[in-house]
Amino acid sequence: MKMIIKTIAIIAMSLTLGGTAAAVEYTKGEVTKIDAKQKKLTIRHEELKNLDMPPMKMVFVVADEAMLEQLEEGQRIEFVAEKVNGRLTVTEIK
């Protein structure tokens, strides 16, 4: 019984530590177009290292349409983009 409790504790600790080890990497960019109806954002961005993409201008969907309310065309941002269900998606903005 003690062995099971120790094993569970070790697994729980490793999951907790593993979750904090992965740091989110933000990419700098400039909003060039906002399409609120389609929940899309066009961004001229630096290299997206996590997606292995060079700097370019491209369209992304947003994970949460509330993100669009805090943005203006021409605004410089830092953002996180990921592939979600096969679509390039902005998941965080600061």
Structural features, described:
The protein has 94 residues and is α+β, with helices and mostly antiparallel strands. It has a single domain (27-93), classed as Beta Barrel (OB fold (Dihydrolipoamide Acetyltransferase, E2P)). Helix content is 26%, strand content 40%. A 5-stranded mixed beta barrel has the order 1-2-3-5-4. Strand 4 and strand 5 (87-93) form a beta hairpin. The protein is globular and about 60 Å long. It starts with a helix and ends with a strand. The model has no long low-confidence stretch (mean pLDDT 86).
Look at the structure and name the CATH superfamily.
Copper binding periplasmic protein CusF
* CATH level-3 fold name: OB fold (Dihydrolipoamide Acetyltransferase, E2P)
Count of discrete structural domains: 1
Listing every helix as H and every strand as E from the N terminus to the C terminus, the arrangement reads HEEEHEE
* Beta-strand fraction estimate: 35-45%
Oligomeric composition of the shown chains = single chain
How does the helix and strand content classify structurally? alpha+beta
Write down the overall geometry.
globular
Low-confidence stretches: none
User: Could you give the count of β-strands?
Assistant: 5
Task: Please state the CA-atom Rg, rounded to the nearest Å.
Answer: 18 Å
Alpha-carbon distance between the two ends = 47 Å
